[in-house]
Specification:
The protein is mainly beta. The chain is 13% helix and 47% strand.
Length: 130
Amino acid sequence: MFLIRFGMLLTVIVLVGGCKSKPKMVDVQGKVALDGAPMPAGQVILEGTDGSTPTTLEVKDGAFQGKALVGKKTVRISSFKKGTQKGTGPGGGEEGLINTIPAKYNTESTQTVEVQEGGPNSYDFKVTSK
């Protein structure tokens, strides 16, 4: 009887001790200005510096809102239009979507924000097309 109770107790301890809390999602919002005017359309990606799942927030008329995981995030801003890919390598000369925002705001971005549980998590970003 003692071994059965001990086994049950050990199972409960392992299950409780092994449980991790679910990542906290909080509201975020903000504005994106492109060359001094509201960016008509695009996206803001908040990418966790800890490798957590990135959050993509759609930008419409310069504004975005949604939910993101708490923590430090790299900010990546993009806006796409139809066009022909430049270059002679793979995809060169083909029709597709082209990012009109310079790489320093997306693939090469070093801008970060801290999404906090207590908020307010409101961000304004200014980007230029050059």
